[in-house]
Amino acid sequence: MMVEDGFDVRIANHPDKVKLKHLLEQNNLPVDDIETLDLQHFFGAQSTDTLLGVAGMEPYGSDALVRSLSVRADAQGQGIATALLKHLEQHAVSLGVQQTYLLTETADRFFIRHGYTIVPRATAPAGIQQSSQFSVLCPASAIFMHKALAS
User: Fold this and answer.
1) Where would you tag: which of 7, 26, 86, 121 has the fewest CB atoms within 10 A of its CB?
2) How far, in Å, CA of 109 to CA of 112, rounded?
């Protein structure tokens, strides 16, 4: 896909862990569990060898935790985050996921524009509550959000 400012971007499975971790660190997102994660449900937006953005999820049956949606500062505002989120949601549906959840401290307006609603943390399904992202890595002040996916 071609985005503004001339980036020719493709979305690929399994982004490089080192590049993924570096991008998340640049955007102040949690990385403590990246080394132990299986990246089969992570996608990278790449232009040549440059990782411009990432998105991932942790499926828990019919629920999934969206995590690590991040775009390099010099590539923001180009539609990359939206493309990654749509790709991730399509992937989720293909796995039978019906409900997506996420935690954010800064991007709630972005996710609201894409159909997510703010819900109480106490409503999180058990699988989501047991994830390291939910139980350890994200602070209690993070906004918890939900979206029902169309099958």
Assistant:
1) 26
2) 5
* 14's tokens: 């399994």
Say if residues 86 and 43 touch (Cβ distance below 8 Å): no
Domain count along the chain: 1
For the segment 75-93, what is each residue's pLDDT rounded down to a tens digit? 999 899 999 999 999 999 9
Domain that holds residue 55: 4-148
pTM of the model: 0.90
**Residue 46 belongs to domain with CATH number:** 3.40.630.30
The arrangement of strands across the sheet holding 63-71 comes to 10-13, 42-47, 50-60, 63-71, 99-104, 143-148, 117-118
